[in-house]
Structures are given as C-alpha cells and as structure tokens.
Amino acid sequence: MSTTLLQGIWDWVLVHDHWLHSPFFPVLFSLGTYLLFCLPYVVLDILSPHVELIRCYKIQQKHHVSWRVMWTCLVHSVYNHVVFIFPLTVIHWYWRQVSLPVEAPHVLKVAQDLVTCLLLFDFQYFVWHMLHHKVPWLYRTFHKVHHKYTSTFALSTEYSGMWETLSLGFFAAINPQLLGCHPLTELLFFVLNIWLSVEDHCGYDFPWATHRLVPFGLYGGAPHHDLHHLKFKSNYAPYFTHWDRLFGTLHEG
Q1: How many CB atoms lie within 10 A of CB 152?
Q2: Which of 27, 159, 168, 4 minimizes the C-alpha distance to 90?
C-alpha cells in the first residue's frame, strides 16, 4: 500500500518533470517550503501575546516577536536565496543533468535513506557548529549573525550569513547524492530537513513535537536548540543529542 502510494506520487512528479528540470525549481522549492512551514508559527507568534493557551507552550514566555523583527528575518531569507543560493543552483543545474527513473523507491529504502541522511547531516552540522563556537574568529566572522536573537522563533531559522547559508545548504544537498538516493527520497529529505530546522527554531514546546515522539531523549528539538541560543556554549547538534552527550556539551536545562 505505502509503496503504491509512493509510486503514485512519483508518477505525478514525472508528469510534471519540466519543473524539476527548471533552473528556478531548487530555489523556489527551498524558499516556498521554508515559508510554508514558518507560516503556522508566525500566526502563533502574532497571537501568543493575547492568547494564554498559545503562550503557555512558548519556551521563553516573556519574549514576543515584533512585526518589524519578523519582516527583517523574512527579507534576509529572501535575499540569501536570491543572491547566494540561486546562482549556485543555476550552476549546479547546468553541470548536473537530472536523470529520473521510472520506478519509485521502496518505502523501507526511503525510510533508511532519510534516517541516514539526517544522521550524516547532524554529524556535519555538529562539527561545523562546534568549530564556529570554539574558534573566536569563525564565530565573529561567520556565525555571530545567527545568534542575534537569543530567543528563537520560526523566521529566525535562516537568519544567517552567506557562509553559513551555503555551508549548511551544501551539506543538505550533497548527502543524498553521496548515498545514491532516489530523486524522490532527495526531495523528501529536503522537506524533512527544512521542517525539522524550522521546528528547532520555532520557540514552542508542544506535546506533539518531534523530541517528545522520539524516545530515550535521543532527539533534542526546540527546547534543546533554544537553550543553545540562550547559553551559546552547549547543544551544538541540530537534531539528535548523542554527539553533544559524547563530547560533554549537552545541556538539558
């Protein structure tokens, strides 16, 4: 049943494959997915100062996001996509000819590849992130801009400089190719990675959040990353907690 569903989705993609072959697709897909995932949290940020039921789930309940701050982050994200990401995706589109198989991947293969891509990205980000905190020059020059806001909110997810934007984008883009993933799996990984990144920065701790669904404290989630923005010197991994636990940088509040 699940494999049939994937094949149906993939058949629909193949019918509209001209989108995948467009040089505009990667940047529009990335930005559109990001903004779509941010939108519910933007609504919550607008309502939270006035609705106690929403505010009680905020991690830093005394902090409220202004329209001006949200607009600044939105403009910054669009700027990064247009000025930095788009030219590189055009170059990538020119050099890499996309070959689309007829058959969709098996659902178990998709699940395996998604988990592997996430674990690999988590490791890459942990190393990159810890270095950019431990080396003062790297922090001042490249990473400091992302720490402008000590209380996280969804639109702060991609509030970063050129080097950080391109570095993390490179990790996300190269991992499915290194692992030989099916193009559908590659698309699903991009969606999943963007969603988890937005959720990490959302500033809310809901009962259905990913870190509450993954057992044994293996996944940090929004409280884990919000604490990183507040304290700076802990919780360097974006998603899972094993690397911070191993290196003694895990802080659970």
Answers
A1: 26
A2: 27
